[in-house]
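Hi R.,

Here's the chain you asked about this morning:
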Amino acid sequence: MSVVPMRLVTAAGPRQQFDAFVSSCVIDQAFHPENAMLMLSGMEGLAPMPYVNTYTKQLRRAEELAERSGIALGHVPFVLSQEEDALIAYLDELEGQINDIQQEREGQINIADQSGKVAEKFEHLQGLTANLDDLWSFHYARFRYGSLPRETYDAFGAMLEENEDVIFIPTSIEARQVYGIYFTTEQTSQAMDQFFASMHFAVIHLDVRPHGTVDEAIAQLREEAQTAQRQAEKLEIQLLALREKERERLLSAYSYLRYHHDCADLRRYAACSNETFYLMGWVPEDALAELTTRFSAFESLSIAVDMPEGIEQTKPPTKLKNPFFGRVFGPFLEMYGLPAYNEMDPSIFMAITYCLFFGIMFGDIGQGLCVALAGILMTKVWKMWLGNIITCCGLSGAVFGCVYGSVFGFEDMLPGFKILEDGNVMLLLMASLGLGVVMIGFVMVLNIINGVRQRNFEKILFGPNGLAGMVFYLGLIIAALCTLILKVNLFVPTYVIPVLIVPLVLIFLKEPLSRLCKGDPDWNKLNLGEFIGVGFFELFETLLSYLTNTLSFLRIGAYAITHVGLMLVVHMLAGSDNVVILVAGNIFVMGFEGLLVCIQVLRLEFYELFGRFYDDGGVPFQPKIIDYTTRSN
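And the predicted structure, written out as C-alpha cells:
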C-alpha cells in the first residue's frame, strides 16, 4: 500500500554514445524519460537533439506485410547490428511475392464471382430452347431479357400476345415475378423498350455471351466459377505456406526495426550542446542500483541523482506497489485517478471498505458463494479484470451471510442477526450511520497525513477535512450523542465556542491562515468583499456536505433491508414447493441487486470518502518498455 519512491536521474555524455546509452540503460529498463529541454531550461547553449527517425518507413512496411500475410506481431530474437540494405531488399522481395499472390487470388475470386452471377442470370432463361449463338447473331431483330411483376403479366398478357410488333416468351413464371425475353424489329425496338418500361419490365443485362443452349451455358459458367474458386483456394494455401515459411524472418526484421525505431524515438526527450547529450528521467529507488551498474559501462558518462523534492518543472510519476488484494481494485481506483506522487495510495483502503460495504448490503451465504463462483469464471475463462473484484465481493457477502444466518433467502436455517426482527431494522440503520461517522473521521485523518506529506497547511489544519474540520464534525456528533443518549447537554458556551465555533472560524479563514503559515508576506492582501462572499458559501457547502455525506451511509442498512425484503417476496411467490420460481428469483436478486449494490458502494467510495482526502492527478510511471505485440505509434 505505497507509492514507490522515485529519483531523478540526469545523464550527460558524448553525443556519439547516445544511441548506445539508450540501448543499454533506457530501453526496456525502469527509466521514465522527461523532456530535458524543459528540465534544463535555465542552462545556456542547449538545443533539442536532432530528430529524424530513419526506421519509421521500413517499420511501417514490416507491420503492414505482417498484417497482410496474417502474421501476429511479436518479438523474435534478432542481431542488434545488421546491414539495412539487405533488410530492405528482403522486405521488397517479400512484398513482391505477397502482391503477386494476392493480386492473382483476387483476380480468380473476381472471375468466380462474375461467372456465378452470370449463371444466376441465365437460370431464369432455362425455359428458352433456342441456341444462344442464334440470339447473338441477330442483325435485323432486337431482344431484351428481364422480368416484370406477376400482376402486370396477368393483366396484360393477352395484349402482349396480340401485339404484332413484339414477341414475348415467358421463360420462368414465379409467384411475384415473371421472367422472359421479348423480340422486336430494329425499327420498333425503341418504342417497345418504352412500352415494356411502362409495365415495369426490369432488363437483365447479359455481359457475357456463352455458347450453346441455356443449360450448356449455365454448366459452362458454373464450371468456370468452380475452377476459379479452386485456383483461389490454391493461392490461399500458397499464401499460408509463404506465411509459415517467412514468419520467423519477418518478425525478426520487424523486431530489429521496432527496437531501433523506439531507441531513436528517445531523441525527442534529449537535449544537446556541441559535443554532449543530456537525457533525464525518473527511476524507482529500488531499481537505481541495477541501472547504476549499467551506467558504469560508459566511462565518459556523467550521472546525477536528485531527490524529487524541490523540482518544480515536473512532478514525479506514480508507480504503485501493492499486494494482490490492493491490485484487484486497481481498475476502480484508476477510474477516479492515480494518486499523486506525494499522496497516500488508497488501494488497500478501497479494497477493504468496498468489500465491507458490499458484504453488509448483500449478506447471504448461498448467493455470495454463487457470485464468487461467477467471478472466478469471469477471471479464469473470459479473462476479465472485473472477475477478481466480483469474487472478493461474493466472498464478503457470504461472510456477512453467516452473520445474518441467511442462505438463499432462508432466514431460519442458521442462527444470526435477523434484520426484520424486533428493533433490528432501526439498529441496523443506526449502525450504518455510525459506520459512516467512523469512515468520514478516518478519511479526515488520511487527509491530514496527505497534508503533512505535501506540506499543505490548509489540508493539515484549516480545511474542512483537516484538523479544524475533524474537531467540528466529531465534536458535533459527540455533543449530539451525549444530549440524546446520556442526557448530558454539551451545547453550552464552554464546549460550543472551542469545539464548534472556533473550528468554523478557522475553516472560514483557511486561505489567509494557510498563506501565513507558508510565510507568504502578502497573506493578508485579499479582496475583502469577494473573500467574505466566497467564504460564506463555501462554509455553508461544507456544513451541508457533513450532513449529506453522513446520511448517505444509510443506504448500507437500507440495501441490507431491501435484500431481505426481495427474498421474502421470492419465497412468497415460490410457496413451499415451486423450485423453479425459487431458483429464478435467486438469480434475479443476485443479478439485479448485486449490480445496484456494486454501483452504490462505488458511489460511497468516490463521493463520500475519496472526495475528502484524495486529490488524484498522478502521472503513471511509463518506462520505455517495447511492446512488440502492438503496432508502433
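The chain has a mean pLDDT of 89.

Let me know if you need anything else.
M.
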